[in-house]
Specification:
The chain is mostly helical. The chain is globular. The protein is built from 21 helices and no strands. The longest helix has 21 residues, at 85-105. The relative contact order is 0.08. The chain has helices at 3-9, 14-21, 25-32, 43-49, 54-61, 85-105, 108-113, 122-139, 147-163, 169-189, 193-210, 213-229, 233-248, 256-270, 274-285, 308-318, 322-333, 341-360, 364-381, 384-397, 407-418.
Length: 419
């Protein structure tokens, strides 16, 4: 049975299935003809509508396709993968982890042999460069432009891992855990969630070797976001609970535990638990009591409480508390954010949230004003993060999707889903 047969067996027309998913009817038609496949954020809802497990859905419609598949019969540029830059980064990460594990396992006499000709301070150099890369990532309007720089740094880290003595391996593992998290962020922003999860897993493994508990905990937090995006809220709570245990062994002056609480609030909101959500948000707001620059390190930990208004608004929206959500989101929109790539993503999320409030109130003007600006930001920045938020908006449109004025907004979001 194909998708069309399954749809008809359950009594859906193409229009009805498209409406339930917040996509255009033509998109469903392309899935049924296997011209395209449903994108990962849409799959959990599609599986639910078709009464299928996710693996059964994959068998029915196929795995998500790459944005630019190679033509049939064209051999890959090398023998280790497709030659795509993403695959190159993934292979380099795996190689770096393998070398790291080997160095940690070396007996003392073999480790000492590596000291010949070694220069001191290599791990510090790697960490310093990682810090610069995080700054570049935060300022970049188009995140994928950072890939070549990350690739160069991975090469430098590989060289360091091969040439350092065993005593320096923990510091280099920490540098690797840092860099893996950045690569995961790049994949996540590009909506490549499998790649992101793999990078975060490597980050956690390297951080464990380094005994860097806050770094390790933050890798788990980022991994939990993959579960949240696929609506596996209970799984996210389990991952975040493990991150909490790690944070208790870490540096109490850092904001790790407060960031974990803010993400737990999202998981609890997904489970419909208002009380637990508000408790977690209150714990997150305790970050303001830390004081000084210890809120974050500018790289893998950047939680300083500046996003709490938008986070609270988003959580209330999840829970259907529209008045509370709008109040918090309007407050967040009024904050003076610098013109950086990271802030553009944040603004896009807030705008989409306000559009969703309008959609649930059946207010087309609010949807068009805020949703239109968010769509422009998504196009300008090529941000998968904002695109994902807009896909969620379409599920809130309901009858408004039939409004003639919604056609342009709906078509624009549809283009983001299928490119």
């Amino acid at each position: 049975m194909g998708l069309a047969e399954r749809r008809r067996a359950l009594g859906y027309s193409q229009e009805e299935l498209a409406h339930a998913l917040g996509v255009d009817r033509r998109t469903v038609g392309r899935w049924e003809s296997r011209t395209t496949t449903p994108q990962p954020p849409l799959r959990p809802r599609l599986a639910e509508l078709l009464h299928l497990a996710l693996d059964a859905l994959d068998a029915l419609v196929g795995q998500p396709q790459a944005a630019h598949p190679e033509s049939a019969g064209t051999p890959p540029p090398d023998h280790h993968g497709s030659g795509d830059l993403d695959d190159m980064i993934r292979r380099q990460f795996l190689r770096a982890l393998t070398i790291t594990s080997a160095l940690v396992a070396l007996p003392p006499d073999e480790g000492a042999a590596l000291t010949d000709g070694a220069l001191r301070g290599t791990s510090e150099d790697c960490l310093r460069m990682n810090g610069h890369l995080w700054q570049v990532y935060q300022l970049a309007r188009v995140k994928r432009s950072v890939y070549p720089v990350v690739r160069d740094q991975i090469t430098a880290l590989n060289d360091a891992l091969e040439d350092r003595p065993r005593a320096e391996a923990p510091a280099l593992c920490g540098a690797a855990g840092d860099l893996f998290q950045l690569a995961g962020e790049l994949a996540f922003d590009g909506s490549r969630y499998t790649d992101a999860a793999a990078s975060y897993t490597l980050a956690a493994s390297a951080s464990q070797e380094a005994k860097a508990y806050d770094l390790w905990a933050c890798a788990l937090v980022r991994h939990a976001y993959v579960d949240l995006y696929e609506r596996r809220y209970a799984d996210a709570v389990g991952t975040l609970s493990a991150a909490q245990e790690l944070a208790r062994r870490g540096d109490g002056s850092l904001s790790t535990r407060h960031w974990i609480a803010s993400v737990l609030a999202e998981a609890y909101a997904g489970l419909g638990d208002l009380c637990a959500c508000e408790r977690a948000l209150d714990q997150a707001e305790e970050v303001t009591g830390l004081g000084g620059p210890a809120h974050h390190n500018g790289g893998w930990l950047r939680f300083d409480g500046s996003r709490l208004a938008e986070e609270r608004g988003a959580r209330y929206l999840q829970l259907g508390r529209l008045d509370l959500a709008e109040k918090a989101l309007v407050s967040a929109l009024g904050q003076d954010l610098p013109a950086s790539g990271q802030s553009l993503r944040r603004r896009g999320a807030v705008l989409t949230g306000l559009a969703s409030v309008g959609a649930r109130r059946q207010d087309p003007e609010q949807v068009l004003v805020y949703g239109g600006e968010a769509l422009l930001l998504a196009r300008t920045t090529s941000s998968g993060y904002v695109a994902h938020k807009l896909q969620g908006l379409r599920t809130d449109l309901g009858p408004l999707v039939r409004e003639p004025r919604m056609a342009e907004l709906n078509a624009g979001i549809d283009a983001l889903c299928t490119t």
